[in-house]
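Tutorial handout. Part one gives the primary structure; part two gives the three-dimensional structure as tokens.
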Amino acid sequence: MANKIEMNLSTKELEEIEKQLRCPTGENGVEIANNMNVSNLSMTLASIELLKLKRNERILEIGHGNCGHLKFILEEAPELSYVGLEISETMQKEAKRINANHRADFLLYDGHTIPFDENSFNKVISVNTLYFWNDAIGFLKEIERVLQVDGVFILTFALKSFMQKLPFVKSEFNLYNEPELRELISSSNLEIDTITHKKERAQSKSGEIVNREFLIARIIKRA
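Part two.
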């Protein structure tokens, strides 16, 4: 059945999936964001756990999608301050709607410059956005800039060895395995604390059941 779904998708439909994954827009964007929230939840929860959140900390999430997972973040510690950044206006609106009962700020930005002062956040998290960083080195330095000394950055993504097999992954994606990640981090003053590799069964955005391989990097800003 899964293979049949994949085969029935046209080139145009696969291109639409790729476009929507980069920047969800309109009704299709809302639908694909709902699917992402479900299919990526285990990745997100594992990433949240590694943040090791503490009382009163300020957390930044880059590319929050519809942020159906916010309650799990806020349950980790009391009196947390959460800020989410998105390039998608559709996702910003959805996140505000879904989380109307939670205290959080959802902001739009240009995908390049993080609109906060230096040392603004104790923790930063980003799940499945690395593929879409046009200037990965420049954007990593932006994350370093807004993160406090000894602050933690959790970066989670599916591995290149897995992603390149998916039918909708084309020119919009920049793919990474662990060596490419280590090279990227070495261009900054950030330091990798731990790298965790995980595998799971998941339904891809084109409908097939796949064995997804992903990586969670726990990264520290040193003085």
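Part three, for discussion. The longest strand covers residues 190-203. The mean pLDDT is 92.
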